[in-house]
Amino acid sequence: MTEMLSYDFMQRALIAAVLVGITAPAVGIYLVQRRQALMGDGMGHVALTGVGLGFFFQTSPVWMAVLVCVLGAVVMELVRSRGNQRGDIALAMLFYGGMACGKMLVSMSAQAGNGSLESYLWGSILTVAPSDLITITVLAGVVIAVTIGLRRQLFAICQDEEFARVTGLPVRVLNLLLAVMAAVTVTVAMRVVGLLLVSALMVVPVVAAQQLTRSFAMTQAASIGVGVTVAVAGVAGSYQADLPSGPTIVLLAIVVFAVLSAVAAPLARRRHRAADDRGPEVCEVRLPDQQRGDAEDSVTSRGLAQ
C-alpha cells in the first residue's frame, strides 16, 4: 500500500476515484428514482463524440466531452419531456450516432490510436493527468453542490412532476439541471470508470444501498459510501493485479450488491415476523365524560329502536 501511494499517478487516480465515487451515486439516485437508470449509458455514447473532437482539434478531450455531453443531455431532456413515440427513435439515433462519430473522429486524428480510445472507453488509472484531476475536482464540486444542496427540489420532480409543478417549483429548469449534472458526471467518471461503464457506477451503488435503507436521505448517503468504497478498492485492485480500473470497479460494485441483497433478505423476513407477532395496532380513543355519555345514550337508543 505504501509503495502504491509513493507514485504520483496513483495519488491522482485515488483522488479521482473518491470524487467519482461521490458524484456518480449522488446523481444516479435521481435517475433510479425516475426509472432512467440507462440514461448515463446513453450520455456516455454521446460523450465519445466530445472525446473524438478533442483528439481531432488537439484540445482537451475532457472539456470537449463536457460540452458535447451537456448539449446531448439538453436534447435528451427536451425529447423526454414531449413523451411521444418518435422520441425513442431520436434518442437511439443520438446515442449510436455519438459512438460512431466519436470513433470516426479518433481514427482521423493524428495523435490518438486505439490505446488512447480504450482508456476513455474502459478507464485507466495511468491516464489521470494533473490537468485532468483539476478538471475532475471542479466539475465534481459543482455536481455535489447541486445534487445535495437541491436534494428536496430534485426529489420532488423525480417523485411526482405534476405535484412539484402545483407547488410552484420550476420543473422544466430542474429537469434540465438534473440532465446537465448527469452529463457532467459522465465526463468526470470517464477517466476512472470509462464511458461504457459509467452508468453502472451511477446505478449499482444506489440499488445496493436500497437493500438496507428506507428513506431517500439514508439511501443517498449509503450509496455514496458504497460508491467511494468500490471506486477506491477497484483502483487499488487494478493497480495490484494490472487490470483495467473500470471493469474492476463495476464488478466490485456488483459483488457488494449481491452481498447486501443476501443480508437484506433475512432481515426483511425477521421484520415481517415481528410485525405479525405484534398483530394489528389498535387505536383507543377516549372521549370526555359528557361526550361518552351522549354516545352511549345514542347507541342504546338505536338498539331499542331495532
UniProtKB/TrEMBL annotation:
UniProt keywords, alphabetically: Membrane, Transmembrane, Transmembrane helix, Transport
Residues that span the membrane, as ranges: 12-31, 62-79, 91-113, 133-151, 163-182, 188-209, 221-241, 247-268
Localization in the cell: Cell membrane; Membrane
Membrane topology summary: Multi-pass membrane protein
GO cellular component terms, A-Z: ATP-binding cassette (ABC) transporter complex
Database matches in CDD domains: TM_ABC_iron-siderophores_like
Compositional bias annotation for Basic and acidic residues: 278-295
Any single GO BP term: transmembrane transport
Pfam families named in the record: ABC-3
Gene3D superfamilies noted in UniProt: ABC transporter involved in vitamin B12 uptake, BtuC
Keyword Iron found: no
Positions of the UniProt region annotated as Disordered: 278-306
Protein family per UniProt: Belongs to the ABC-3 integral membrane protein family.
This protein's name: Zinc transport system permease protein
Originating species: Kitasatospora gansuensis
Taxonomic lineage: Bacteria, Bacillati, Actinomycetota, Actinomycetes, Kitasatosporales
